[in-house]
Write a structure and sequence with these properties.
This protein has 647 residues and is an alpha/beta fold. The chain has 25 helices and 16 strands.
Length: 647
């Protein structure tokens, strides 16, 4: 049997197999299974997630049988135990094999995303790491000091500008009128950049060299003029990369994808130097577009050479004056740019709030266009599948239900969710079990999960044919280059299981990403940090609040050889400055444990563990309840096992 056929037989390509896992999501394999397993030599950057379905089903049957036997033996004792502790008292001793298998199966079920037919809203919020209620629970002292810190920074910035213009007017020449020309940027508009961003400029735009994989090499630099300019020291630093969107670890300079890219360059060169409307429509481009459409479950797709332009240049082709765009208040800048360029009326609804969306829909439909009150030509609702600053998935099932009721068009930006969410990596539709045909326009990028560049628009064939003629990205922009197309097609084939030589690797990366994200987020919560986002999100924001702690956290991480991204106002609300961890399938458990250890030390140093007391109290309460339940079970069990005395 060939290697590809053997892989398909063992793993059934991209079909999801429920496996027995431990609490962290790792597959439980005994020594016999490890010896028999044909693919036990997994890549060092991912866990051994391959298990024959027959073995898994046998284990489940054995576990069910053991649990049934234990239940029969304890049936008499259960009636005497209080109802509040039934779930804890029914579990067998932790040393037994059945207990380990049951815990692993429960972890696997809990780690899997909701499927069609389940309550999606409940499944979405069960394991969420933060919500609006948690933000409301932030101590008032933290919020007050955060506002006061920003107020002091702004006041001192204005004072420095006032006295600086008197003492050193030559430093402000570019902010004054010169030779009858108005300044390009006024002093007030540039205040934030000059006085606040300039103080922490060393935390951003750090130059790197080499491949930005699980680890990345930084070029060291220093500043002798308070971050106005930098100079290189000639030294490099190897750091753990928690800053890049390399979700599935395809950003590699070697491996099957890199080999396919090299072959494509030798066969077709680098680029055709023309838009697709002229000489840029190649066989490679057409085949990749067909693959993208098949991957996302649409009839056709249009590939764009730039991710930002995929939104900014295609939304104006969908709507125009007389149309209405309902946009989530936290949508990406590219969506905002595209909406503004379209000329359509734009209205914003509360972030991820279907009720707010419905209120805007009812108001807009009933009132019609401004002044004339004519019906809208089209209504387009624009949301993101995964919001990268919050790590939250959109409420897609509820929005789809509103689409059926009110008849609007739905545009979903899956820049961060495609390839990273869902059992098969097909994005937010796969995650919630929603039919992709319920979404009119599916947008995504190749810059995150696929290790490439550019993006796509997918939908009905009639829509894509129209876009090819009317979208500026198709008519004027240069077609995607040959090596990028090769990277997209090769990585997507691996995820879909169509690469016979590497049929298992794509699903293995998806499983490893899911395990890494849940493990990292759970450990941060257990340490007492306040995090944001939904379960399974590869983006895990950790709230810092104070503007002084934002650069301090970044610099402390760099001292410990960890590369992170810190974000503050205006990219986020002014009180929710944060660090954004981007977890990848290329990270090993050792990488994550090292990062967690260092982040915990930094959290103690900067006093960031806002939930530490609550976590400790919950752990103490849980241990006391477990001890009481164990004592009750031992007492009841002992009473049952005592022989009856005949008088």
């Amino acid at each position: 049997m060939g290697k590809g056929k053997r892989a398909l037989t063992a793993y059934k390509s991209t079909d999801f197999i429920e496996q027995v896992r431990d609490a962290d999501g790792l597959v439980i394999l005994d020594q016999k299974q490890q010896q028999q397993h044909p693919f036990k030599a997994a890549p060092p950057t991912s866990s051994s997630l391959l298990l024959l379905s027959e073995t898994a089903s046998e284990k489940e049957q054995q576990t069910a049988g053991l649990a049934k036997g234990e239940k029969k033996g304890q049936q008499t004792a259960v009636s005497e135990i209080p109802a509040g502790v039934l779930s804890s008292s029914l579990s067998p001793p932790p040393s037994s094999t059945a207990s380990a298998n049951n815990a692993g199966a429960a972890a696997a079920i809990a780690a899997s995303p909701p499927v069609a037919g389940e309550s999606t809203s409940a499944g979405k919020n069960d394991d969420s790491t933060a919500s609006s209620s948690e933000l409301e629970a932030v101590p008032s002292f933290i919020l007050v000091t955060t506002y006061l810190s920003y107020l002091m920074l702004i006041v001192f910035a204005h004072l420095r500008d006032f006295f600086g213009k008197l003492v050193s007017p030559e430093n402000y020449v570019q902010l004054r009128e010169q030779n009858g020309y108005a300044p390009m940027v006024s002093d007030f508009e540039s205040l934030w950049t000059r006085r606040l961003y300039g103080r922490i400029r060393d935390c951003f735009n750090r130059p790197i060299t080499g491949v930005a994989g699980g680890h990345v090499t930084l070029l060291e630099r220093v500043s002798h003029d308070f971050n106005r300019s930098f100079e290189f020291t000639g030294r490099v630093r190897e750091t753990l990369n928690l800053a890049s969107y390399n979700y599935l670890g395809f950003a590699q300079s070697h491996g099957p994808c890199a080999d396919k890219v090299e072959q494509a360059i030798r066969a077709n060169g680098l680029t055709h130097g023309s838009p697709r409307a002229e000489a840029g429509r190649t066989r490679q481009l057409v085949e990749t577009e067909e693959m993208v459409a098949r991957f996302v479950g649409a009839e056709a797709a249009l590939i764009v050479s730039m991710g930002y332009a995929t939104n900014a240049l295609n939304i104006p082709a969908l709507v125009s004056k007389g149309c209405l765009i309902l946009s989530d208040e936290l949508n990406h800048s590219s969506l905002v740019s595209g909406a503004r360029l379209s000329g359509a009326t734009i209205r914003v609804f509360e972030h991820n709030n279907p009720r707010s969306l419905e209120r805007e829909l009812r108001r807009s439909i009933s009132q019609g266009q401004p002044r004339t009150h004519r019906p809208w030509k089209k209504i387009l609702v624009v949301v993101e599948g995964l919001y990268s600053m919050e790590g939250e998935t959109c409420c897609l099932p509820e929005i789809v239900e509103l689409r059926r009721r009110y008849g609007f068009y739905l545009f979903v930006d899956e820049a961060h969710s495609i390839g990273a969410l869902g059992k098969r990596g097909r994005g937010v539709c796969d995650y919630f079990g929603v039919d992709p045909r319920e979404v009119d326009v599916l947008m995504g990028t190749f810059t995150k999960s696929f290790g490439a560049a550019g993006g796509y628009i997918a939908g009905s064939r009639a829509l894509i044919d129209y876009m090819r003629l009317h979208s500026h990205s198709a008519v004027y922009a240069e077609a995607m280059s040959v090596p990028v197309l090769a990277q997209v097609s090769s990585s997507m084939r691996m995820i879909m299981g169509e690469d016979r030589e590497h049929a298992l690797e794509g699903q293995q990366r998806l499983d490893q990403l899911a395990i890494n994200t849940r493990y990292f987020a759970r450990r941060l919560r257990e340490m007492g940090f306040m995090t944001m986002g939904d379960a399974g999100s590869p983006v895990i924001p950790l709230l810092l609040f104070s503007p002084a702690k934002i650069p301090a956290f970044s610099r402390e991480c760099l001292r410990r050889n960890i590369a992170v991204v810190v974000v503050s106002y205006p990219a986020t609300p002014i009180i929710t400055g944060r660090v954004r961890f981007c977890v990848s399938a290329s990270h090993t458990r050792e990488d994550l444990d090292y990062a967690l250890e260092q982040v915990s030390e930094i959290g103690d140093l900067l006093m960031l563990k806002f939930h530490k007391n609550a976590v400790m109290a919950a752990a103490t309460a849980e241990s006391s309840v477990s001890g009481a339940v164990a004592g009750a079970v031992a007492t009841v069990g002992g009473g049952i096992q005592q022989p009856m005395k005949l008088e």
